[in-house]
Amino acid sequence: MRIPDDKMEYYKDRAEMYVGEDVSPDFYAWVFPKCDHVAVGTGTVIDKKGIQRYQQGIRDRAAPRIAGGEVLRVEAHPIPEHPRPRRVNNRAALIGDAAGYVTKCSGEGIYFAAKSGRMCAERILINSEYGTRMIDEHDLKQHIREWDAKYGATYLVLDLLQKVFYTTDAQRESFVELCEEEYVQRVTFDSYLYKTVQGNNPIGDLKLGWQTLASLWKNENKVPDEMRTLV
Protein backbone atom coordinates (compact mmCIF):
# COMPACT_ATOMS: atom_id res chain seq x y z
CA MET A 1 0.00 0.00 0.00
CA ARG A 2 1.35 3.40 -0.97
CA ILE A 3 0.47 6.00 1.66
CA PRO A 4 0.93 9.81 1.68
CA ASP A 5 4.46 11.06 2.30
CA ASP A 6 3.66 12.52 5.71
CA LYS A 7 2.30 9.18 6.87
CA MET A 8 5.20 7.30 5.29
CA GLU A 9 7.49 9.44 7.43
CA TYR A 10 5.87 7.88 10.51
CA TYR A 11 7.07 4.46 9.37
CA LYS A 12 10.56 5.64 8.48
CA ASP A 13 12.08 4.03 11.56
CA ARG A 14 9.38 1.73 12.88
CA ALA A 15 7.29 -1.33 12.11
CA GLU A 16 4.02 -2.25 13.81
CA MET A 17 2.75 -5.58 15.10
CA TYR A 18 -0.89 -6.04 16.14
CA VAL A 19 -2.53 -8.86 18.09
CA GLY A 20 -6.20 -9.50 18.80
CA GLU A 21 -9.22 -11.52 17.71
CA ASP A 22 -10.10 -8.81 15.21
CA VAL A 23 -6.85 -9.22 13.26
CA SER A 24 -6.02 -12.94 13.73
CA PRO A 25 -7.20 -15.79 15.97
CA ASP A 26 -3.77 -17.43 16.16
CA PHE A 27 -1.11 -15.14 14.70
CA TYR A 28 -0.41 -11.42 14.43
CA ALA A 29 -0.99 -8.62 11.94
CA TRP A 30 1.56 -6.10 10.76
CA VAL A 31 2.41 -2.85 9.04
CA PHE A 32 5.98 -3.01 7.73
CA PRO A 33 7.73 -0.24 5.76
CA LYS A 34 9.16 -1.24 2.38
CA CYS A 35 11.09 1.54 0.65
CA ASP A 36 8.33 3.83 -0.68
CA HIS A 37 5.28 1.89 0.57
CA VAL A 38 4.07 -0.29 3.45
CA ALA A 39 3.02 -3.93 3.67
CA VAL A 40 -0.24 -4.30 5.59
CA GLY A 41 -1.12 -7.89 6.35
CA THR A 42 -2.06 -10.69 8.68
CA GLY A 43 -2.02 -14.48 8.85
CA THR A 44 -3.90 -17.42 10.27
CA VAL A 45 -3.73 -21.20 10.19
CA ILE A 46 -6.97 -22.10 11.97
CA ASP A 47 -9.38 -19.80 10.10
CA LYS A 48 -8.22 -19.45 6.52
CA LYS A 49 -11.72 -18.63 5.29
CA GLY A 50 -11.80 -15.55 7.53
CA ILE A 51 -8.60 -14.01 6.16
CA GLN A 52 -10.43 -11.18 4.38
CA ARG A 53 -12.18 -10.23 7.62
CA TYR A 54 -8.87 -10.16 9.48
CA GLN A 55 -7.29 -8.16 6.67
CA GLN A 56 -10.02 -5.57 7.09
CA GLY A 57 -9.39 -5.70 10.83
CA ILE A 58 -5.76 -4.63 10.50
CA ARG A 59 -6.72 -1.89 8.06
CA ASP A 60 -9.25 -0.60 10.57
CA ARG A 61 -6.73 -0.71 13.42
CA ALA A 62 -4.08 1.12 11.45
CA ALA A 63 -6.57 3.44 9.72
CA PRO A 64 -5.29 6.76 11.18
CA ARG A 65 -1.76 6.00 9.95
CA ILE A 66 -2.58 4.62 6.50
CA ALA A 67 -5.53 6.86 5.60
CA GLY A 68 -5.45 7.94 1.98
CA GLY A 69 -3.36 4.95 0.99
CA GLU A 70 -3.57 3.24 -2.38
CA VAL A 71 -3.61 -0.54 -2.52
CA LEU A 72 -0.90 -1.53 -4.99
CA ARG A 73 -1.24 -5.31 -4.81
CA VAL A 74 -3.15 -7.93 -2.86
CA GLU A 75 -1.45 -11.28 -2.41
CA ALA A 76 -1.60 -14.32 -0.15
CA HIS A 77 0.79 -17.18 0.50
CA PRO A 78 0.63 -20.40 2.52
CA ILE A 79 2.78 -20.47 5.65
CA PRO A 80 4.39 -23.92 6.10
CA GLU A 81 4.89 -23.76 9.87
CA HIS A 82 5.15 -27.48 10.58
CA PRO A 83 8.42 -29.30 9.77
CA ARG A 84 7.41 -32.31 7.73
CA PRO A 85 7.87 -35.68 9.44
CA ARG A 86 9.46 -37.05 6.26
CA ARG A 87 11.95 -34.75 4.56
CA VAL A 88 14.10 -37.32 2.74
CA ASN A 89 13.13 -39.86 0.10
CA ASN A 90 15.84 -41.86 -1.62
CA ARG A 91 18.31 -39.22 -2.86
CA ALA A 92 15.93 -36.23 -2.62
CA ALA A 93 15.76 -33.90 0.39
CA LEU A 94 13.31 -31.12 1.20
CA ILE A 95 14.67 -27.80 2.45
CA GLY A 96 13.23 -24.39 3.32
CA ASP A 97 9.49 -23.90 2.91
CA ALA A 98 9.16 -27.31 1.24
CA ALA A 99 10.40 -28.89 4.47
CA GLY A 100 8.09 -26.73 6.61
CA TYR A 101 10.86 -24.62 8.13
CA VAL A 102 8.85 -21.46 8.87
CA THR A 103 8.85 -20.73 12.61
CA LYS A 104 5.79 -20.33 14.77
CA CYS A 105 5.16 -16.99 16.49
CA SER A 106 7.37 -14.92 14.19
CA GLY A 107 6.59 -16.54 10.84
CA GLU A 108 10.24 -16.24 9.80
CA GLY A 109 11.41 -18.52 7.03
CA ILE A 110 14.00 -16.79 4.84
CA TYR A 111 16.98 -17.47 7.11
CA PHE A 112 16.01 -21.09 7.70
CA ALA A 113 15.46 -21.66 3.99
CA ALA A 114 18.96 -20.45 3.18
CA LYS A 115 20.55 -22.17 6.17
CA SER A 116 18.91 -25.54 5.48
CA GLY A 117 20.06 -25.39 1.87
CA ARG A 118 23.61 -24.64 2.92
CA MET A 119 23.72 -27.34 5.60
CA CYS A 120 22.33 -29.91 3.19
CA ALA A 121 24.84 -28.95 0.49
CA GLU A 122 27.74 -29.12 2.93
CA ARG A 123 26.70 -32.59 4.11
CA ILE A 124 26.36 -33.79 0.50
CA LEU A 125 29.80 -32.39 -0.30
CA ILE A 126 31.43 -34.17 2.63
CA ASN A 127 29.58 -37.49 2.31
CA SER A 128 30.14 -37.66 -1.43
CA GLU A 129 33.85 -37.25 -0.71
CA TYR A 130 33.77 -34.04 -2.73
CA GLY A 131 31.95 -35.55 -5.67
CA THR A 132 33.82 -38.83 -5.95
CA ARG A 133 30.98 -41.12 -4.84
CA MET A 134 27.18 -41.14 -5.10
CA ILE A 135 25.24 -40.24 -1.97
CA ASP A 136 22.23 -42.20 -0.73
CA GLU A 137 19.28 -41.72 1.62
CA HIS A 138 21.43 -42.42 4.66
CA ASP A 139 23.68 -39.47 3.81
CA LEU A 140 20.73 -37.08 3.53
CA LYS A 141 19.18 -38.34 6.76
CA GLN A 142 22.42 -37.43 8.48
CA HIS A 143 21.76 -33.84 7.40
CA ILE A 144 18.24 -34.01 8.88
CA ARG A 145 19.62 -35.24 12.20
CA GLU A 146 22.11 -32.38 12.26
CA TRP A 147 19.38 -29.85 11.43
CA ASP A 148 17.03 -31.13 14.11
CA ALA A 149 19.81 -31.16 16.70
CA LYS A 150 20.65 -27.52 15.94
CA TYR A 151 17.19 -26.01 15.44
CA GLY A 152 14.63 -28.53 16.69
CA ALA A 153 14.36 -26.86 20.11
CA THR A 154 13.69 -23.51 18.45
CA TYR A 155 10.64 -24.85 16.65
CA LEU A 156 9.34 -26.61 19.77
CA VAL A 157 9.68 -23.51 21.97
CA LEU A 158 8.07 -21.18 19.43
CA ASP A 159 5.24 -23.66 18.90
CA LEU A 160 4.64 -23.68 22.67
CA LEU A 161 4.77 -19.88 22.89
CA GLN A 162 2.21 -19.53 20.12
CA LYS A 163 -0.16 -21.92 21.89
CA VAL A 164 0.29 -20.12 25.22
CA PHE A 165 0.09 -16.50 24.04
CA TYR A 166 -1.81 -16.39 20.73
CA THR A 167 -5.06 -18.20 21.57
CA THR A 168 -7.19 -15.60 23.42
CA ASP A 169 -7.08 -11.84 23.84
CA ALA A 170 -6.31 -12.31 27.55
CA GLN A 171 -3.26 -14.38 26.63
CA ARG A 172 -2.22 -11.81 24.04
CA GLU A 173 -2.42 -9.10 26.70
CA SER A 174 -0.02 -11.15 28.83
CA PHE A 175 2.29 -11.46 25.83
CA VAL A 176 2.34 -7.67 25.42
CA GLU A 177 2.96 -7.17 29.15
CA LEU A 178 5.87 -9.59 29.22
CA CYS A 179 7.46 -7.95 26.18
CA GLU A 180 7.98 -4.87 28.36
CA GLU A 181 10.39 -6.84 30.57
CA GLU A 182 14.08 -6.18 29.88
CA TYR A 183 14.98 -9.86 30.28
CA VAL A 184 12.36 -10.87 27.72
CA GLN A 185 13.61 -8.23 25.30
CA ARG A 186 17.21 -9.40 25.66
CA VAL A 187 16.41 -13.10 25.28
CA THR A 188 14.12 -12.39 22.33
CA PHE A 189 16.75 -10.27 20.61
CA ASP A 190 19.50 -12.83 21.15
CA SER A 191 17.27 -15.71 20.03
CA TYR A 192 16.29 -13.83 16.88
CA LEU A 193 19.90 -12.85 16.21
CA TYR A 194 21.38 -16.33 16.68
CA LYS A 195 18.27 -18.25 15.49
CA THR A 196 18.41 -20.62 18.43
CA VAL A 197 16.74 -20.48 21.84
CA GLN A 198 18.80 -18.30 24.17
CA GLY A 199 18.51 -17.53 27.88
CA ASN A 200 20.50 -20.03 29.96
CA ASN A 201 19.87 -17.92 33.08
CA PRO A 202 18.09 -20.21 35.57
CA ILE A 203 17.13 -17.37 37.91
CA GLY A 204 15.92 -15.18 35.07
CA ASP A 205 14.02 -18.08 33.50
CA LEU A 206 12.40 -18.98 36.84
CA LYS A 207 11.37 -15.37 37.42
CA LEU A 208 9.97 -15.16 33.89
CA GLY A 209 8.01 -18.37 34.40
CA TRP A 210 6.41 -16.97 37.55
CA GLN A 211 5.64 -13.65 35.85
CA THR A 212 4.06 -15.52 32.94
CA LEU A 213 1.75 -17.55 35.18
CA ALA A 214 0.80 -14.49 37.23
CA SER A 215 0.09 -12.41 34.13
CA LEU A 216 -1.98 -15.15 32.50
CA TRP A 217 -4.05 -15.63 35.66
CA LYS A 218 -4.59 -11.88 36.07
CA ASN A 219 -5.69 -11.27 32.49
CA GLU A 220 -7.94 -14.32 32.37
CA ASN A 221 -9.81 -13.07 35.45
CA LYS A 222 -10.32 -9.38 34.79
CA VAL A 223 -12.46 -7.21 32.57
CA PRO A 224 -10.37 -6.24 29.53
CA ASP A 225 -9.14 -2.65 29.41
CA GLU A 226 -10.16 -0.42 26.55
CA MET A 227 -7.86 -0.69 23.57
CA ARG A 228 -5.14 1.93 23.64
CA THR A 229 -4.98 4.30 20.69
CA LEU A 230 -1.66 4.65 18.91
CA VAL A 231 -0.61 8.17 18.01
From TrEMBL:
Record has Transport as a keyword: no
Catalytic activities: phytyl diphosphate + 3 NADP(+) = geranylgeranyl diphosphate + 3 NADPH + 3 H(+)
SUPFAM superfamilies: FAD/NAD(P)-binding domain
Single Gene Ontology MF annotation: geranylgeranyl diphosphate reductase activity
Keyword hit for Oxidoreductase: yes
Gene Ontology CC terms, in alphabetical order: chloroplast thylakoid membrane
InterPro entries recorded: FAD/NAD-bd_sf, Geranylgeranyl_reductase
GO process terms (BP): chlorophyll biosynthetic process; photosynthesis
EC numbers on record: 1.3.1.83
Keyword set, alphabetical order: Chlorophyll biosynthesis, NADP, Oxidoreductase, Photosynthesis
Pathway per the UniProt entry: Cofactor biosynthesis; tocopherol biosynthesis; Porphyrin-containing compound metabolism
Function summary: Catalyzes the reduction of geranylgeranyl diphosphate to phytyl diphosphate, providing phytol for both tocopherol and chlorophyll synthesis.
Family the entry assigns: Belongs to the geranylgeranyl reductase family. ChlP subfamily.
Name of protein: Geranylgeranyl diphosphate reductase, chloroplastic
Organism: Polarella glacialis
Lineage: Eukaryota, Sar, Alveolata, Dinophyceae, Suessiales
